[in-house]
């Protein structure tokens, strides 16, 4: 079940939001301080963040910057400020939407659902791809999950890069051996199975709705990603 993180220091507002979020079928994690929300970002792994601007200590803009340094999680800003400059600041700083207080909780839920219906895959540059919380840089041959670089063996990394370059395509063991291990490889094709198992363990924190590696019995393996071409 997807988790919505609410970062709001007004108890009355956070209680109402939490009730509507749970009624809509999501988990809800409420934080009253921006610092704690940032610290718990990797642990909670929210599908979306509702972020108040006027927070004690680390304010909403600072929290947004920290979130964007670590994650591509969608963020909806909540604030009493309605000036166009504030809305533009939020959107230009990486927010996905902006809701002005006071608001109707049903509208907030509708905005959440609209954003979460968007494809999770986004092409960042010619050599980078983002699959939810997973970022892959094909030029530097690096992979990060929730902002943290994954430590993979050279072959495991090569396998993941190959599969991610061809999202939603199915490859059987022989094809993967030829494309990743090389045509001169004379070991067992079970090496593919072992590498897939290790990759799944490394990608375990990745929410299933963002993507992952799928086994199609009798057919092969696939890196599936919602919204990928």
TrEMBL record:
Any one GO molecular-function label of the UniProt entry: transcription cis-regulatory region binding
Q: Which residues does the record list as 4-aspartylphosphate (modified residue)?
A: 52
Gene3D superfamilies membership = 3.40.50.2300, 6.10.250.690, Winged helix-like DNA-binding domain superfamily/Winged helix DNA-binding domain
Q: Which ranges carry the Response regulatory domain?
A: 3-116
* Listed GO biological process terms: regulation of DNA-templated transcription
Q: Which UniProt keywords apply?
A: DNA-binding, Phosphoprotein, Transcription, Transcription regulation, Two-component regulatory system
Give the record's GO CC terms: cytosol; protein-DNA complex
Known DNA-binding region: 126-225
Q: Residues in domain OmpR/PhoB-type?
A: 126-225
What is the protein name for this chain? Two component transcriptional regulator, winged helix family
- The source organism is Paenibacillus curdlanolyticus YK9
